[in-house]
Amino acid sequence: MTITTAALLAEGTRRLALAGLDCARQDALRLMAQALGIERLAVYVEPRRSVDARAAASFRALVDRRAAHEPVQHIQGYEEFRGLRIAVTPDVLIPRLETEGLVERALELLADKPGALVADIGTGSGAIACGLAVARPDLEVLAVDQSLGALAVASDNVRALGLGSRVRLLAGDLFGPLASLPASLDMVVANPPYCPSGVIPTLPVEVERFEPRLALDGGPDGMRVLRRIITEAPRFLRAGAWLLMEIGEEQAGPLASLMAAEGFSRIGARRDLRDVERYIEGRWAEGAASVPLTGMAAQRVGC
Ligand SMILES: C[S@@+](CC[C@H](N)C(=O)[O-])C[C@H]1O[C@@H](n2cnc3c(N)ncnc32)[C@H](O)[C@@H]1O
Question: How far is the CA of 16 from the centre of ligand 1 (A)?
Fold first, then answer.
């Protein structure tokens, strides 16, 4: 017995909507493209294409997994990040749209630094490191993570994108693996864990149950790792280098104060599309005066 793509998509969408998923149709479409081995667009272009029983069963099995709140990216094994296909597993945070904004800002700050050496601290899947290295073929990136599982995924991504000669993966705690590189970096970029521990049980099931705790948990106020990066980074930054980080809601104020106290200048926060201060940056240059914290351009966010 066969069924059309349109009817099967409607069935899958209904099932996911009943499971309480906000992006039911979008997810069903992704899973259908995966089950049928076709592009998403083809599902629209050929709504009356008939699907055989085996392909329909494989689609329904994927929908069952998604209905149990397994992230669609885990089911598919990848997420798109700045147009790159980034492999993901439960060992890494699924790269977020907000983090594309972090990479865009990093590229702006690096515009006048040819051949820059950048450290991506807490690289996870390697999304930031790969995004930077693809956009700027002159950059070298040192990508650090404490999780060996995450580094294995990052290694696959670096290799698949042909970046092995410019993205080096290092295992360890924050700047530990960079101990031999004082005053060498042109930028430290990081998307550290910044959720307050107490908030984690309230996160969507997709995040709380399926994404690694080490990627989420920023300690009691969410800023434990962020603070360590601010205090430990200066030893590794050249004069004029940037520290740029993704941050959580209501963290910009205290982090900006800490950056000023540590000697950073040109400290600023940038907002995402939900008008949340999502990024913080500061320039390392001893003796330079600090400027007040300012909100800046919006970035895209969404489902
Ligand atoms: C929020 S995830 C970000 C992953 C990736 N950079 C991204 O933006 O999608 C934070 C990452 O930091 C890593 N991490 C947490 N604490 C760390 C530490 N003390 N040293 C090194 N890496 C750490 C986690 O393993 C995780 O991969």
Answer: 30
Class of 3-68 in CATH: mainly alpha
For ligand 1, what atom is nearest to the CA of residue 129? 6
Atom 2 of ligand 1, nearest CA residue: 215
CA-to-CA distance for 152 and 140, rounded, in angstroms?
A: 19
Which residue is closest in CA terms to ligand 1's atom 27?
124
Residues 1-58 pLDDT 10s: 789 999 999 999 999 999 999 999 999 999 999 999 988 888 878 888 899 999 999 9
Q: What is the pLDDT of residues 93-119, one digit of tens each?
A: 999 999 999 999 999 999 999 999 999
pLDDT at 285 over 70: yes
Ligand 1: does its nearest atom lie under 6 Å from the Cβ of 192? Answer: yes
Q: Within a 10 A sphere around the Cβ of 197, how many other Cβ atoms?
A: 16
What residue has token string 């865009």?
104
- Is the domain covering 90-284 a CATH 3.40.50.300 domain? no
Both tokens of 211, joined, read 């994404």
Q: Is the CB of 101 under 6 A from ligand 1?
A: no
Domains of the chain, residue spans: 3-68, 90-284
